[in-house]
Task: inverse folding
């Protein structure tokens, strides 16, 4: 059985008047219980063994990275031409909302000057930006995109109309100055294929909206649903449930087959409270266990570190680790980083060696040493397979 | 050890400070562009004025190269980091460079950081890192940009039809905020809590966009570009260069300087201006290239 140690790190993220985001991040050892076979993907791969190591400043703290909290004050949805021709309702919670319309494949480009925005039938002034301006800035928006900014518009419900619309459009609404912010995170940034991760989402800042908005939102419930998206485009709906603290959680099961397409997986989260929509994406890596650390790392000296491997699929594998050394105060601190990789042509037992012997360690640091943050990467498939917080002390 | 002879090995001492060039050093500078597929980055991305000003600071002004690669790809791809490694290796070998200064703009910083963070990925990487003196990263997109998220919103990949909005660019996809967070946590170094990069990575941070038709400074880097960047600023935080939040530009390595602290008349550098001869940026880079 794989041995896992879990360090639960509480997150106390506060935001002016916003409730504390209650999600906890898990910084876990990632250990593959077995290996799987896989063909060598198409492409060019390095075959020469390479080692590289360099000194670190012991004053810098090296620690496992927790997944970041993603924040969103925006949402998107598909709208059809018939909706746009008659007018699409856009509720906003704060002044300064930005509305962007992008034609989907085959849809008619929109002239930003022809877009109309009304509130209760009365025209609303908007600053207008054509696609060319966004493109000139380097923003790779789709042809025919138009953007409006409701500069002075109060919170309320606005109607956006495009009489010339033909086809389907992506409508994005951004409220840069709204206190309502969706916060979301997963409990890990990497998982093995067939594994699971947990996502938590909160809608913060509702009470900080203008009084009339807050009153309306207070009686509405916070809802969200997730969409798991593989790098190859496959999707799965992910239901979310109450965490009994005002937020929502989801346990996301990753298909055992993973994906053969490079890139990250995403949990896209679509949330709503009282008609104010927010969405975000949480990206994470999914690794197939094409190899694993077969047994304990062996270290007899700084020049002789051995990482035994069990290889399940041909490919190029790398171990990387941070060397900690003991200072004159008796404390261990990070003093060097080392990497070692080689090509393994067939499944079976193997080994990677690493030496720190030629790295000039900071003065005052010596044995006992410890290898921490040991990771095994499949470079052929761009997959961070294993991670162990602590490997060996010597 | 018999094993040791077989291995390409490199070890580096801690390079905590930047020191002046040794007389025996052969100093060279490489300009690395941002997102896009370049075939003539000198004219189309940088423009000769800034390149010529900076290389004038070298002991031998011929020791420069302007990189042309396909940075529409994921940073680790052969046409991205592989191409960059190939052109840097050719430059180092052909000019005998012993002290390499790399100047990157925007996503070029990520591709360079890939090489520095993954030295065993490619057997050419260690020689580049060993000769690398420092990276001066102009407006690096180290933590991604909300603009990439906005471009990808709704742009779902449908298996039967391809990209809904008809746009596919893995470099844009990669620079979404949550994607860069994951790559920074697992594949790249230099961000908070992660091991330091093997050589200095120093960011120049652009903090604002000015686009008044009555202000001649708004025309540096292109007036229409600056007007566009003011539009895209709507998607960004209060401190941004119109394309990247200041927090993203500052996320990896160290901050060399924020624009207004060094530029002429404390002018901010928009994302279009941080690769051009604007507000003394060129002379600041020239004065630094030989340090």
Result:
């Amino acid at each position: 059985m794989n041995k896992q140690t879990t360090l639960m790190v509480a997150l106390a993220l506060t935001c002016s008047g916003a409730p504390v985001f209650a999600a906890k991040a898990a910084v876990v050892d990632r250990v593959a219980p077995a290996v799987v076979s896989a063909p060598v993907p198409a492409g060019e791969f390095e075959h020469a063994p390479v080692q590289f190591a360099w000194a670190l400043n012991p004053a810098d703290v090296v620690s496992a990275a927790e997944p970041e909290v993603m924040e969103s004050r925006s949402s998107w949805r598909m709208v059809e031409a018939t909706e746009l021709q008659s007018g699409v309702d856009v509720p906003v919670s704060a002044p300064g909302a930005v509305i962007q319309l992008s034609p989907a494949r085959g849809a008619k480009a929109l002239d930003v000057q022809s877009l109309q925005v009304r509130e209760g039938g009365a025209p609303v002034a908007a600053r207008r930006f054509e696609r060319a301006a966004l493109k000139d800035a380097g923003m790779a928006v789709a042809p025919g995109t138009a953007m409006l900014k409701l500069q002075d518009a109060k919170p309320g419900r606005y109607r956006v109309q495009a009489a010339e619309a033909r086809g389907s459009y992506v409508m994005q609404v951004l409220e840069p100055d709204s206190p309502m912010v969706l916060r979301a995170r997963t409990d890990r940034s990497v998982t093995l294929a067939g594994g699971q991760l947990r996502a938590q989402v909160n809608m913060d800042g509702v009470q900080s909206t203008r009084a009339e908005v807050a009153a309306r939102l207070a009686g509405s419930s916070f809802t969200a649903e997730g969409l798991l998206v593989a790098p190859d485009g496959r999707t799965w709906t992910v239901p979310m449930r109450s965490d009994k603290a005002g937020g929502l959680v989801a346990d996301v099961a990753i298909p055992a087959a993973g994906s053969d397409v490079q890139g990250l997986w995403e949990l896209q989260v679509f949330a709503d409270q009282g008609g104010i929509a927010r969405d975000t994406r949480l990206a994470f890596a999914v690794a197939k266990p094409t190899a694993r650390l077969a047994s304990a790392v062996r270290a007899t000296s700084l020049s002789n570190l051995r990482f035994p491997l069990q290889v399940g699929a041909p490919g190029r594998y790398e171990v990387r680790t941070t060397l900690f050394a003991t200072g004159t105060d008796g404390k261990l601190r990070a003093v060097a980083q080392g990497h070692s990789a080689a090509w393994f042509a067939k499944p079976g037992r193997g080994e990677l060696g690493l030496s720190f012997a030629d790295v000039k360690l900071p003065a005052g640091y010596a044995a006992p040493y410890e290898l921490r943050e040991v990771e095994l990467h499949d470079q052929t498939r761009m997959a961070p397979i294993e991670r162990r917080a602590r490997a060996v002390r010597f | 050890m018999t094993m040791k002879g077989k291995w390409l090995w490199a070890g580096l001492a801690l390079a905590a400070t930047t020191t002046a060039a040794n007389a025996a050093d052969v100093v060279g500078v490489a300009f690395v562009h941002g997102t896009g597929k370049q075939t003539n980055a000198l004219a189309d991305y940088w423009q000769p004025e800034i390149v010529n000003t900076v290389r004038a600071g070298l002991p031998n002004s011929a020791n420069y190269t302007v990189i042309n690669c396909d940075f529409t790809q994921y940073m680790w791809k052969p046409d991205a980091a592989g191409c960059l490694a190939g052109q840097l290796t050719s430059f180092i070998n052909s000019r005998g460079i012993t002290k390499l200064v790399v100047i990157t703009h925007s996503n070029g910083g990520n591709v360079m950081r890939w090489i520095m963070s993954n030295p065993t990925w490619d057997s050419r990487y260690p020689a580049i890192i060993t000769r690398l003196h420092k990276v001066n990263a102009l407006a690096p997109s180290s933590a991604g940009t909300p603009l990439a998220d906005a471009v990808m919103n709704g742009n779902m990949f449908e298996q039967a039809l391809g990209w809904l909005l008809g746009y596919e660019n893995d470099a844009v996809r990669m620079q979404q905020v949550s994607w860069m967070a994951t790559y920074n946590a697992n594949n790249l170094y230099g961000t908070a809590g992660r091991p330091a990069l093997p050589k200095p990575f120093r960011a120049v941070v652009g903090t604002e966009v000015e686009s008044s038709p009555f202000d001649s400074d708004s025309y540096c880097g292109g007036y229409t570009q600056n007007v566009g960047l003011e539009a895209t600023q709507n998607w960004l935080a209060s401190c941004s260069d119109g394309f990247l939040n200041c927090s993203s530009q500052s996320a990896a390595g160290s901050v060399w300087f924020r624009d207004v602290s060094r530029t002429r008349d404390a002018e901010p550098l928009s994302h279009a201006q941080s690769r051009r001869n604007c507000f003394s940026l060129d002379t600041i880079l020239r004065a630094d290239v030989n340090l």
Notes: The radius of gyration of chain A is 26 Å. Residues 1-20 of chain A have pLDDT under 50 and may be disordered. The CA atoms of residues 222 and 273 of chain A lie 5 Å apart.
